[in-house]
Design brief:
- This protein is about 20% helix and about 40% strand.
- It is α+β, with helices and mostly antiparallel strands.
- A hairpin with a 5-residue loop joins strand 12 and strand 13.
- The N and C termini lie far apart (about 45 Å).
Amino acid sequence: QVFLFDEPLSNLDAKLRAQTRLEIQKLHRELGITSLFVTHDQVEAMTLAQRMIVMNNGQLEQFGTPEEVYNCPGSTFVAGFIGSPPMNLLLNAPNSQAGCLMGIRPEHIDITPEAGWTLQVETIELLGAERLVHARLGHEPITLRVDASQAAPALGESFRATPRSDKVHWFDQANGSRVERV
């Protein structure tokens, strides 16, 4: 037996969608039946999947657990699709490799007063327990996710931030595939 779900939650409002997602998880656990769940909603994919396939124009981009896909995206498409907000993909970041894009998730960039990249704040979104700081690194947009209790720079202000070196990803600029840093 296999359950096939084709975007079953897409027409539900946010509250009902969250409740139904929990019910699907519970039923799946209780019944132990394999399910194939098609969705364009990454929250649904990340919360319901034990293994997931990311497709791009009918082609398989990556297969793995939600943790593997999120923490080690195989391409710029996956890096930009999984995560909200998506991974920052930077062409001209300091210390970039020639021909490569640097990828760094918004939560893996720390505000560091003394050292790091110089960023310029464009807008700030307060989301309750966290803030999204949308800024520019030179001419490139970059987003940071910071704790709302942490002091945040003001609109238009310059500040310094540093990516966590163990969380940096590299992608081939020409084809978008993941590469290891040389």
